[in-house]
Amino acid sequence: MSAAVAARQILTRLHEVMASRLHAQGKLDQVVDIIAECLDSEVCSIYLLREGMLELVATHGLNAEAVHVTRMAIGEGLVGTIADNVETLNLAEAKAHPDFQYRPETGEEKFHSFAGVPIVYRERAVGVLCVQHLDPRRYEDVEIEALQTTAMVLSELISNNELIDEEEARGLAPADTGPATVAGLPLVKGLGSGVAVYHQPRITIDQVMADDIEAERQRVYRAFDRMRDQIDNLADRAEFGVGGEHEEVLKTYKMFAYDEGWSRRINEAIDSGLTAEAAIERVQQRTRMRMREIDDPLLQDRMHDLEDLANRLLRIVSGQIGTAASQGLRGDAILIAKNLGPAELLEYDRRRLKGVILEEGSLTAHVVIVARAMGVPVLGRVRGLRGMVQEGDLVLLDADNGNAVARPAQQVVDAFAARFAKSRERQAHYAELRDVEPFTRCGTRIEVMINAGLRDDISALPLVGADGIGLFRTEFQFLVSATLPQRERQFRLYRDVLDAAGDRPVIFRTVDIGGDKALPYLRESEFENDENPAMGWRALRLALEREGLLKVQARALLEAAAGRSLHVMFPMVSEPWEFDAAKAVFDSQLAHLRRKKKILPEAIRYGAMLEVPALAEVLDQMVPRLSFLSVGTNDLTQFLFAADRANPKLAERYDWLSPAILRFLRRIAQATAGSGVDLGVCGEMGGRRLEALALLGLGFRRLSITPVAVGPIKALVRQVDLAELEKAMQGWLAAPPQDMRGALTAWAQERGIETD
């Protein structure tokens, strides 16, 4: 029996039950009888969420006396585990599962096999449908799909007959109507308050069973045609517009969009009697089950792509197209999303977007880099987010401490407002330093520059009084483009940046793509074997192999800098020959422009980023080649400690004030001292006041940081006596204290230096 036949048989009988005049309890009793008979199962039971507990409300095969008596908490036993994780369980031997709990009043001790599926309403498990069998066996896929179909019908029955509390139906337990605190990983620090806005509105399936199967099939065909047109059009657009998915998955999207197997499974679900929306959702449930069984991270990513595409198809077929950006933000908002691409974030009104909370996200995600440049606080890896924060809730986001409060009490709102006001006072104080040069107490001038990557970022230069742009990430233009940016487009961007910067220097980092920043217009096969993308084929390694890409960028930069100074920095240099090869590309393009009688840059300074520890071992060879050297502390730290920053278990484990990293940085400072090479830091470490204090003590005199950190770092610099600081740092590194961070904090506090 096929899945469609099994489901159709069940649905036909369920249609009759739903149309009958039986009361709700009578319908539930008939449902369990039908499922048990059609699946040839000794037991079928339904549990529903009532007053925060899962209550046995109907059963075929268990003791009837247990109905409305047996109750368990979310997460308790097999039933509670299904509801908690919103996932399917299929066990040949139930007792072998670590979460198994025996309830003597049910008489279930004689049954071995167990399968259960969540009953989902408004994206929350509000019940569980399960079956049990005397013999140990796993239920077949067709049986699981039949259970999932029935669970969808039960969801409709529940909502129409008020079988659970309305608050629970909306995804809120009684306790959740009051204040709720969610915790996560701070991705971009800062404070923000506003109403919760979902990036993609919830899709509520109001009708599960189809009245006209052929009409539902035609709706799906039309939705597939429209979705495929959208995906095809993305490749022809220079920039992603409203509703566009992130370009990195474009090729995978196209593959899935035209996959006949996927569309066939949806059609089979419609054949069983489901509406178009319900059919797509049932196939999605199967995808989620497979995702949980896959250990291969690459395959898991592909399954995530398919689920994202299914969400797009579901929005089209239901008529709920577009994101919140297309509707516009009506007031101060905290954006709620599973994940975001950088192009999607840029679609929002920066004046009203006060923060972002993500279910996923990592410190190295492209959207985090863009959000940091925009000054938008971001909290990531928030589990159960959509179940706790409802659209329209007031949300107080504290990305400094890694939490957010939804529906806060008034006293919490008042306290947050006071803290926010204090923060604004600090910012006003820092704004007063805009035109003040950052000299230390001993008279040493420290360069304070900003990191940028967007054309709009340049406006921050005069606002914060930075000395220039110490890192312009040219890859941003590549990341938010559906096709490889041509030379003319690159030229216009670089020229506009130089025009806006005026007499302030701009250090352009050549494109850092590949590996963890794979692009759809590069062959996917070139990246598929990169088990550790951050340390793989990326940045200068990719650019040197794809010489045409670097040539185009070199030509665009040289032409944009005609008649003025150009600063070029090569990323991820590990050996001197890589630097030489990259510079040779620029030299060849410079010679070409000279032959064409083009106006040339009046001066060109070449530098390198020190991110790969190996480069520190050959600095004696590198120094004569360099005009400047910038230490990229983000990548350097993860390479030095073998700690992936995207791994939440390691993200906060290694401290930038560890003696290991500080000693390594001191070696770099010593190797370049007196050479004439400008040494700086262009990483997050330089924008944190305590860490910046350590860098000054190690001999670093140029910091390139986020615009919002310029004022605080200027204020710090003006409080420091370098001779005193360097002496203290030498002592700590010679005999490291047990708590380096604590020692430096105490030292600063004794001298009235603010480091918070």
TrEMBL record:
A Pfam family this protein belongs to? GAF
Which ranges carry the GAF domain?
Answer: 23-168
**Coiled-coil annotation: which residues?**
none
NCBIfam families in the cross-refs: PTS_I_fam
Q: Which reaction does it catalyse?
A: L-histidyl-[protein] + phosphoenolpyruvate = N(pros)-phospho-L-histidyl-[protein] + pyruvate
- The UniProt transmembrane annotation reads none
Q: Known EC number(s)?
A: 2.7.3.9
Please give the InterPro entries that the UniProt record associates with this protein.
GAF, GAF-like_dom_sf, PEP-util_enz_mobile_dom, PEP-utilizing_PTS_enzyme, PEP_util_C, PEP_util_CS, Phosphohistidine_dom_sf, PTS_EI-like
Q: What is this protein called?
A: phosphoenolpyruvate--protein phosphotransferase
Q: Write out the similarity annotation.
A: Belongs to the PEP-utilizing enzyme family.
Q: Which domain of life is it from?
A: Bacteria
Keyword annotations for this protein? Cytoplasm, Kinase, Magnesium, Metal-binding, Phosphotransferase system, Sugar transport, Transferase, Transport
Q: Which GO terms describe its molecular function?
A: phosphoenolpyruvate-protein phosphotransferase activity
First-tier enzyme category under EC? transferase
Instruction: Give the location in the cell.
Output: Cytoplasm
Major subcellular location class: cytoplasm
Q: Which cofactor does it need?
A: Mg(2+)
State the PROSITE patterns in the record.
PEP_ENZYMES_2 (PS00742)
Instruction: State the SUPFAM superfamilies in the record.
Output: Enzyme I of the PEP:sugar phosphotransferase system HPr-binding (sub)domain (SSF47831), GAF domain-like (SSF55781), Phosphoenolpyruvate/pyruvate domain (SSF51621), Phosphohistidine domain (SSF52009)
